[in-house]
Amino acid sequence: MEIDFFINFDKRVNSTKRPVVGGLVEKYTLTGNLKEPCSVMSPVINIQNIPVQNAPCVFTYAWIPRFYRYYFVKDWVWNDGLWTVQLEVDVLATYKPHIGETYAYIERASADAQGNTPYYNGNIIDRMYPAKNDFDTDSILLDAPWTGWDIEDGCYVLGIISRTNISNVGGAVQYYALTHTQIRDLLEYMLNDTFYDNAGFSATNPDSQLTHDLAKAIVNPIQYITSCMWFPCAVSRFTTADPITIKVGPWTTLGTGSPILSRVGYRSDFSVTVPSHPQASTRGAYLNYSPYSRILCMLPPFGAFTIDPSYIPDDRTIVFTIQVDGITGKACLQICREDTTQGKTDFFYESSAMFGVPIQLAQLATDYIGAIKGAVTTIGSAVAGVTASSFTGGAMGAMMTLGSIGNTLSALQPQVTSEGVNGSFIAFERLTGTFPRLTVQFVKVVDEDNTEIGRPLCEVKQIQSLSGYIKCGECTVDFYAFESELNKIHSLMLNGFFWE
Description:
- This protein has nine helices and 26 strands.
- By secondary structure, the protein is mainly beta.
- The chain has four domains: 2-92, no CATH class; 96-120 and 454-499, no CATH class; 130-142 and 266-356 and 366-445, no CATH class; 151-259, no CATH class.
- The protein has a six-stranded antiparallel beta barrel with strand order 1-2-3-6-5-4. It has a four-stranded antiparallel β-sheet with strand order 24-7-25-26. A four-stranded antiparallel β-sheet has the order 9-23-16-17, with no helix packed on it.
- The longest helix has 13 residues, at 483-495.
- It is rod-shaped and about 145 Å long.
């Protein structure tokens, strides 16, 4: 029986590589006799006439044409003046053409057929490489339109009991939007003698039954103001109407006017681009998500809360929107991502807080806002009632846990929030430590070895469309071979092999 032996040929035991004569690789054809009983899988052969200049130890690989199989040389044994070679079948090289035509679910891969590396799906979590105790932190300021307002620059919404009501709010209370100067002038007018003169209380007419001093003791015009709320915005946010004369109870405040509240509330929004993980561009977008990235938002008066990174779109831009109620002072915060490809907006976080700052004008006035404030909470919630079972798709879509491939559901983080500030000017000032901001913490992963371990792919591919390291999640090996050979091929493909 003729046996082709090869020298200077190197290969991995889990590789499909076949010897090609050329360069340092040489082939020597020797004649041998099978040692009975003989196995095709692990033949033992007596070899005669080995060239003197070539010690048998240099023959490390073989091809037996009669058996149509490649073999690893396990050992050479000298016995009674005769060299005996022990061989073991190389199933990957032997059945390489059949393996190459096989379609399999590829869990990990290192390169495509042209050798382009890496070849992977960057949205799949790669658990092969552990995280380091090495964090990067990035903090960016949020350009919230309601931050940085002085008290003099804001807007006051007054609720006044009036004899007529022309606003769209309804009821006995008329709502007005005033500037700081206007409310100062209004209070100055209502608390001086001019108001009492215009109301019919004369300080100089001897026939008057009520002097100013007595009228001031009986009549308190401030008690007709049921509420006063300050907002960090311009008056134009609440109204487009022309100024009118303010009615206070049965009296008219001559010479003082302000726009009527033609809008009950207003909307304000801004957007921000969330920083990416410093390793995401080279290792995979999965690092932009939990647990490798954590996002904490500090946004007075809504408090501090976490944002689930799995909601962040590919362009890393999210939009903050608030709806402000000018009557109660309550505001609702919503955070969304805009899907421009489908023309829709996805809201993924919602919270509420006392946005307006209640201003007390007189102790005699009833605190109607108190009950409202007590009912306002600032605990945020995920809009869709997110649970593990509700995640069915998206860039971080759930998938089977295959070896080192991380499952998205195991990385989800809870929505944790804290109570914000209720009715305080501090929430709107630009003080150190109160700037609205996003703080993003990145957990780094260790260095990788794409050549020997590959990266997650998780797609059905034909083996010969790839190159280098391949690890199959599942495959069907159904070509002509011994059962033991098929089992060995199947095991090697599932544990990782090299297509070479």
